[in-house]
Amino acid sequence: MKNTERFSTRVDNYIKYRPHYPVAVIPYLEAETGLTRHTIVADIGAGTGISAQPFLDNGNKVYAVEPNKDMREAAEKLLNRYPNFIAVNGSAEHTTLPDASVDLIVAGTAFHWFDQQATAAEFRRIGRENAKVVLMWNVRQSELPFEKGYEKLLHQYGTDYKDMQHRNVGASQLAGFFQPGTMQEKVFQNAQLFDFAALKGRLLSSSYVPEQGHPSYTPMMRALEDLFGKYKEQGMVKFHYETKLYLGTV
Question: Which pLDDT tens digit goes with each residue over 78-120?
Fold first, then answer.
């Protein structure tokens, strides 16, 4: 399966159950990059628009570049109320945006799919003078008992979860992408509360778990029910995340 097609059957669950980004990202970028509502933003690998929305709420024009047709069309439906939202059929390596057309380039939980060298060249092409790049991920915490159990479930039933783990990107891997001395890191706390139906949707939003019809689907769901039953409080479980943000120039 092509990377651009991995989420085509996951769109509905992705929209409903993937974590959003903390509102605190906006004032942080205002302070560190001079972000205003006039800043032109390119959201690369925009998916269903989760990472575009904070900037749209801030009044920014956002070019949402997404190669997956199903996700791009979902974003268009969800965000058509924003006159400054522009969906673009393109990729990180070939955005189709004009030269020197954007002030801020954002990738939310997407950069690990990109070809870094080609992406850096493309970001330099589309960025105006002094354009900044923001790479951010919602990183699920795995040290708490419920999250440990969920992680164990993914290792047991995930079809290629171990391969996806190799795509985890941190400061050391990013040091070569940003210009020397320009990268800075910021961590925000984030969380989601789920009843069982939502927890099931959150699991199925991931491209590396089996879908209905796969031999592992039914035992995976039984394991998820057991996990939920063990850790629920007032009918809910909580995912804890760190939103890790990396800012710099390329």
Answer: 999 999 999 999 999 999 999 999 999 999 999 988 999 999 9
Q: Rounded to the nearest 10 degrees, how much is the dihedral formed by the CA atoms of 76, 80, 85, 89?
A: 20
Q: Look at the domain 3-248 and name its fold.
A: Rossmann fold (3.40.50)
**Where are the strands (E) in the chain, listed by range?**
40-44, 61-65, 85-88, 102-108, 127-140, 184-194, 237-248
| Amino acid at position 216, single letter | S
Tens digit of each residue's pLDDT (9 = 90 or more) over 54-66: 999 999 999 999 9
Q: How far is CA 186 from the centre of its chain?
A: 16
3-class secondary structure, 105: strand
Write the CB contacts of 125 (distance below 8 Å, at least 6 apart in sequence): 99, 100
- CA 95 to chain CA centroid, nearest Å: 18
